[in-house]
Amino acid sequence: MRTADLVTAAVLMLVGGVVLADAVRLGIGWGQEGPRSGFFPFWLATLMILISAVVLVQAARRSATRPFATRDQLRPVAKVLGPLLGFVLVTDPPGPWTGLGLYVAAGLYLGFYMRWVGRHRWLPVAALSVAVPVIAFVVFEEWFLVPMPKGPLEDWLGY
Amino acid sequence: MGLENLFLGFQVAITPFNVFIALVGVLLGTIIGVLPGLGGANGVAILLPLTFTMPPTSAIILLTSIYWGALFGGAITSVLFNIPGEPWSVATTFDGYPLARQGESGQALTTAFTSSFVGAFFSIVLITFFAPILAELALRFGPPEFFAIQLLTFSSFVGLGGGNPLKSLITILLGFILASVGLDIVTGQLRLTFGFTDLMKGFDFIVAVIGLFGIGEILLSVEEGLRFQGAQARMSPRVVLDTWRKLPRYWRTFVRGSVIGFWMGFKPGGATPASFMSYAFAKRFAKHPERFGKGELEGIVAPETAAHAAGVAAMLPMITLGIPGSPTAAVMLGGLIIWGLQPGPMLFVDNPDFVWGLIASMYTGNVLGVLMVLTLVPLFAAILRIPFAILTPLIVVVCAIGAYAVHTSMIDIWYMAIFGVIGYVFKKLDYPLAPLVLALVLGDMAENALRQSLIMSHGSLLIFFTRPITAVITAAAIFFFALPVITPHWRRWREAAAGRHA
How far apart are CA B323 and CA B330, in angstroms? Predict the structure, then answer.
């Protein structure tokens, strides 16, 4: 817990430093129409650096007690976070690659998760990973006209 | 003038379509409140895009009904599963869960719902009368007054939030910093973008809410293993009626809880301290305080009444001043802007049908809500029996859809994931998330108010002390900011004084 507290406070100070630099570039004083663009961020960043420094000192003075998270706690967290990031990547990866779109990615994600974590049988896995994206498609694209990222499958189907 | 306006509002709120919308909202909201990882704020945020094509009054009725539903749903998880869905439901678990374990879950739930309803109703009545007065007063406010109110808003997080006040301050500052990323509308300069075009649009607080509260909450809750478990829900009309017969004897607790809830609630972050304060008072004045924590009905009445009175009271500054009192109210405020309405006191002048329709729908929504949860409890409890491996990906997908729909932008889904991790780490380290969200929402408004005030005063901060209303509000804000510093001294002084008498 202590290490995590120290790291977080240090990162926050770093963020403050970055903001401070940009605020100074923008001008922190008085311009033609009142305070300039960097005025407000400058004071925010200054305060944040100072307060984070105090939190850092507070954390450093405390003795390390319990860990931020035990191995047993982190494993399930990673089991949720990993597939989540996979799902976002498959939906639309950054860079030149084309993604499969949200609906296909959601189906794959649900199916993978049910099989891998829940150890459900293949029949419910297949049924739900088709049904859920189809229902979501009808609700969002057809009823509420909210478009989601689409991929080759939707192109092929003519949407 | 209040009553005829309310009558006008009811004409808007009781059209068949709007009643239908309210029913759907309460149903969705309760489901959201029951689901782990989803609560009032991110539930409203996810469903916000669905309202873009609705008339504003129906849209706000949908969102507020979701909010009422989520508040009721939080009570279900607290009582049956010992999982407080929101921080202000923590005190409800103290007596609610033991009672459910004794096989009296029906009694516990009926008490929780009824108390919620009473607390909410009390606050709605007060809002009906105070909102127009406050709005009229606020019409005369200038930038210095608004900045002072913002200061008060954030000071109450620091002063009343509990935990480390420095960490509250840091999340407030971080929220303001995130809000200032992108185009500065006053000077037209790009700020904190460092050449990345994706950063030009800035960070949308709705995405932040979905990530911080939704994804972050899921990550936190799975630490204890990939499952949820709880008590059975038994509910019958007889149990409801029997419980209602017992409740009137706690009328003092009802009144005390409502008053504490309303008083704490219109200040931000007030719902959680209100619920604990109400619980503590009920225990202190009870004939048998030793029964508290073992399944005492009064121990459910007290926190639930206060939490809901506070939850509703959080809407008061949102509709009258345009300053939300809670993250959920903040999301609704974002909705107002998207629907093309200008939040703040002018709403009462320009859109009376909207404001009064909203206030009237608070009455109808809560009446519908309490009837609905009482009849549908087994259904809602069944949701938590959906296997974990199905529920988790479903919630994640729904969160992603909500985040994407705000601006139909892929980068927002990535931001959601990043905010999820930040939310997880911050929660573990006791950095409060609500102030961050509120600062992100109010950032532009606060900065503009500050800049305009400084232009008015040619750069002197004294303007916040020389105008009478501003001076009072600023003084209150400074008091709250200083509260964490004063309290230990005050306590030591009192102990010393008590020692001298003894």
Answer: 8
Q: Which residue on chain A is closest to B174 by alpha carbon?
A: A48
Q: Compare B65 and B264 and report the one with higher pLDDT.
A: B65
User: Which of B219, B410, B414 is facing A81, going by the closest CB pair?
Assistant: B219
Q: Check whether B269 has a pLDDT greater than 70.
A: no
The identity of residue A154, as a single letter, is E
Distance between A144 CA and the closest CA of chain B, angstroms: 6
Q: Give pLDDT tens digits for A53-93.
A: 999 999 988 877 777 888 888 888 999 999 999 999 999 88
Q: Does A106 lie in the same domain as A38? A: no
- Do B177 and B199 meet the contact criterion of CB atoms below 8 Å apart? no
Contact B172, B439 (CB under 8 A): yes
* A34 and A99 inside one domain: no
* Same domain membership, residue A82 and residue A8: no
Q: Which residue has the higher pLDDT, A133 or A1?
A: A133
> Can you tell me the mean pLDDT for B350-365?
89
**Helices of type H across B408-467:** 410-428, 434-456, 463-466
Q: Does some domain include residue A31?
A: yes
Q: Find out whether B244 and B114 touch, Cβ atoms under 8 Å.
A: yes
| Contact yes or no for B397 and A140 at CB 8 A | no
Q: List the domain range (segments joined by +) for residue B62.
A: 2-142+203-435
**Same-domain check for residues A151 and A131:** yes
Domain boundary among A15, A42, A61: A61
**Which of B174, B219, B392 lies at the smallest CB-CB distance from A48?**
B174
Three-class secondary structure assignment of B37-90: CCCHHHHHHHHHHHHCCCCHHHHHHHHHHHHHHHHHHHHHHHHHHCCCCCHHHH
- Non-local (6+) Cβ contacts of A155 within 8 A are none
* Residues of B whose CB is below 8 A from A148: 401, 404-405
Do both A76 and A13 map to the same domain?
no
* pTM of structure: 0.86
Q: Are B325 and B268 in contact (CB under 8 A)?
A: yes
Q: Is residue A66 part of a domain?
A: no
> Chain A residue closest to B185 (CA)?
A37
Q: Do A55 and B167 touch (CB under 8 A)?
A: yes
Minimal C-alpha gap between B221 and chain A (Å): 9
State whether residue A150 is helix, strand or coil: strand
d(CA A96, CA A80): 27
Residues A75, A141, single domain; the answer is yes
Q: Are residues A75 and A142 in the same domain?
A: yes
Model confidence pLDDT, tens digit, residues B399-425: 999 899 888 889 999 999 999 999 999
Answer yes or no: are the C-beta atoms of A55 and A9 closer than 8 Å. Answer: yes
Is B156 part of a structural domain of the chain?
no
Nearest CA of chain B to the CA of A156: how many Å? Answer: 21
User: Is A9 inside any structural domain?
Assistant: yes
Number of domains in chain B: 1
DSSP B154-192: HHHHHHHS-S-HHHHHHHHHHHHHHHTSEE-TTT--EES
B427-473 tens-digit pLDDT: 889 898 888 988 888 888 888 889 999 989 888 888 899 888 899 88
Asked if residue A99 is part of any domain, the answer here is yes
Alpha-carbon distances of A136 from A84, B401, B410, B463, rounded to whole Å: 18, 9, 18, 54
Instruction: Report the C-alpha gap between A22 and B193 in whole angstroms.
Output: 9
Contact B397 A54 (CB under 8 A): no
